[in-house]
Amino acid sequence: MSSRIPLRKRLLVRLMITSVLIALCSVAATAWLAVQTTTRAIQEEQGQVLADDTDILRQLSGYAATHPSWAGVQDTVRRLSAATGRRIALTTADRTPIADSARSRTALPPGAAATVDPLHTDTYSEPGAQLSGVDPRAVGPYRLTPLERARLGKMATVRQKCAARNGVDTTIIWTPSGRPVLADENGILPNSRVPDVCADGHLNTLTHTEETAVARLASLAEACLRRENVVLPGKGFISLEFSSQAPQPQFALGRKDLGGHPTAIGAKGNECLAEARREQLDPDVAPVAELFLGTGDSALPHFDMSNANKAKIVGVTGLVLALTVAVTALVATRLVRPLRALTQAAQQPLERHVRVPVTTRDETGILAVAFNELTERRERMEAQRKAMVSDIAHELRTPLTNIRGWLEVTRDGIVDPDPELLASLHEEAVLLQRVIDDLQDLAAADAGTLALHREAVRADELLAQVAAAHRVGAEAAGVGLRTGTDGTSAPTGSGTAWIDADPVRMRQALGNLVSNAIRHTPDGGTITLSAREEEDQVVLAVADTGSGIAAEDLPSVFDRFWRAEKSRSRRTGGSGLGLSIVRQLVAAHGGTVAVASELGAGSVFTLRLPATDPPVDGDEVR
User: Fold this and answer.
1) Which of 478, 567, 587, 496 is nearest to 533 (CA)?
2) What are the two backbone dihedrals, phi and then psi, of residue 184, each rounded to the nearest 5 degrees?
3) Its Enzyme Commission number (predicted)?
4) Distance CA 212, CA 141 (A)
5) Which of 26, 179, 220, 581 lies deepest, with the highest CB count within 10 Å?
6) What is the pTM of this model?
7) What does the alpha-carbon distance between residue 577 and residue 512 come to, in Å, rounded to a whole number?
8) What is residue 590's three-state secondary structure?
């Protein structure tokens, strides 16, 4: 049979394919998860590194904006290196060391991470971006004197209180140059939003320091315009717009045309203003420096999927697959081996009744045990079938042989057909008919076609009818037959036991039990029929004081053609079908039958049937 199973449908192949697919999915999922996790970790690390680098550049640009040289920056470099865990080095454009957090002569990365130039950067709006702006912390000659700071501070406090009295809440912010400005929740408070009673014009008036610096800036801007051959239509001047960062100089002449766009003079003026501002601030800021971060060939960590790493992944994947296939093959072989044994045993001829060894305690072992039990039941049923066929043949052969023999000798004139002979032939025919009827009843019960005509039956009346039908036979055998019911002394009432049954079939079942008891009870013995109620059941019992049944024979009492005595005499032999019919009839009524016996002391057959309510007649209804 196994040779006819397609390869793709074999259990071993299916298990191996399933395991390989599971292993592939597991490896793929693990690899994907590892790559995603590693990538995310690298991205987060790089993001943190980028944030750290931006902060380093911002702080070093601030140092350069507030110091005329890099002298003393070593402490700042070491502090930033300790905080970020990065190597930080500053050099001139020709890589002359200025400050370094690493030991001397440590190799620098091949390229600088950024250029630190406070005059060409914007570390506030775009951290780390090298734009054309000036670091707002570079104030140079615009830095106010302590006296000016104190005077402006008093003015700012007075204006803040005035604004508060008029419903405007503000805070004082000190710019890098030392000038205070007022700000609300939306930012720097413009003059247009200052209450009129508070706008005295004193706070925004330039100090002596600022006037001197603006005059110097204007002179430098005019010199630039002359170099560019730009003629101003009048005297140019420069205004300062104060913010929380620093005063922002604005060139005041020709900034925009009627459409709101910068004119040529205004654009060139702004360019010269920016150049003049850098020229003015240059002496007060540190020179341009190159910033190096990290060591070796790379400043930032990166993930390198090299050929060696790829080979490792492929190798580990192959190893996992090989191990999976090997384990699957081992497990599948152990699993399939007992199944093959079961298949081979099932293919053997039925008469061999082959059993399989039970080698495991798992589901396959349970299946093997069930197969062996099925084989044993089949063997036992086959033996019973053969015995039943033999018994049926014998039971039918004996009366038929007697009938045939007497008919032949009568035909030959050897014996006259007198009444005694006819009575003997009639007895044999009745015995033959009884066997056939018993077999017919058993066949109907097995097929589930046994017809029952149920009605409410009183247990005491049923026992009385059975006793009356067998009393003559019992007296002929010298056996006493009596009935005894519990709670049935009155004709009707709550103490009377009722059952819903076919009275004919129940008399047949009880009659078989009484007939057996008469055959196996010696002269002078007693047979008792009793009934009692137990909860929702009626218990009918047939007890005798006969020879009893051995304990080892009790499980076979209700088997077909079984006899306690193996002889086939007319007195004790019987057909061997009576008790089988009793069990089938009781089961058809939804009840059970049991036997208790002691060898030499008698037997008790107990029938348990569902109890029912007594019928209600017309008089009681009225």
Assistant:
1) 496
2) -110, -160
3) 2.7.13.3
4) 8
5) 179
6) 0.44
7) 9
8) coil
